[in-house]
Amino acid sequence: ATPALVISAGACGALSPDLREGQLVVPEAILLESGARYPTAPLAGYPRRGTLLTVGRVVESPSAKARLWVETGAVAVDMESAVILEWAQRRGVPAAVVRGVSDTASRAVPADLASVVEPDGRVRTMRAIGVALARPRALGDALALRRGTSAALAAVASALGTLARS
């Protein structure tokens, strides 16, 4: 059966300096670096604001985040939503996006930690262990990112729970 709605849910990184860890991002549209743009479906009780940029890599530095914010006007960035919205659009299914901010625009994601994340968002466990062994401070950086991701996913889970009940 064709679903009535598809929701892309998960974490995102802030591009706008106004966003804080754990804040929800429910965008009006998804933008790809190619310039393709996909509108999102409305969700009751969650006003859509701004644009979410989907990229194929982790945006590591505050300066790279600032550049993308200025160049695209997107408030946040993720690596998955465009693929999900493209899938839904090909099938004529409305799609919405609910993302939680895992890292602020001013927080860097160290390159070695960014390298452990696959394009689909999964973590490469063996590479993560290698990074921790090579750079002991990476564990502290990873824990800080984990706190932000936990706050982001808690906000998303709460929103999805509210949506499911309504």
Task: Describe what this molecule looks like in 3D.
This protein has five helices and seven strands; from the N terminus they run βββββαβαβααα. With 166 residues, the chain is an alpha/beta fold. The chain has a seven-stranded mixed β-sheet. Helix 1 (62-72) links the parallel strand 5 and strand 6. The protein is globular, with a radius of gyration of 16 Å. It starts with 5 loop residues before the first strand and ends with a helix.
Quick recap:
With 166 residues, the chain is of the alpha/beta class. The chain has helices spanning 62-72, 81-90, 111-114, 125-134, 137-165, and strands spanning 6-14, 24-25, 29-32, 37-39, 51-54, 76-78, 95-103.
What attributes does this structure have?
5 helices, globular, seven-stranded mixed β-sheet, 166 residues, single chain, 39% helix, alpha/beta
Radius of gyration: 16 Å
What's the SSE pattern? EEEEEHEHEHHH
Q: Kindly name the structural category.
A: alpha/beta
Biggest sheet overview: 7 strands, mixed
Average pLDDT number: 91
Measured by DSSP, the beta-strand proportion falls in 15-25%
How do the strands of the widest beta sheet line up side by side?
A: 2-7-1-6-5-3-4
Question: Can you lay out the helices and strands and say which pair or pack?
Answer:
Layout: E1 6-14, E2 24-25, E3 29-32, E4 37-39, E5 51-54, H1 62-72, E6 76-78, H2 81-90, E7 95-103, H3 111-114, H4 125-134, H5 137-165
Parallel strand pairs: 1-7, 3-5, 5-6
Antiparallel strand pairs: 1-6, 2-7, 3-4
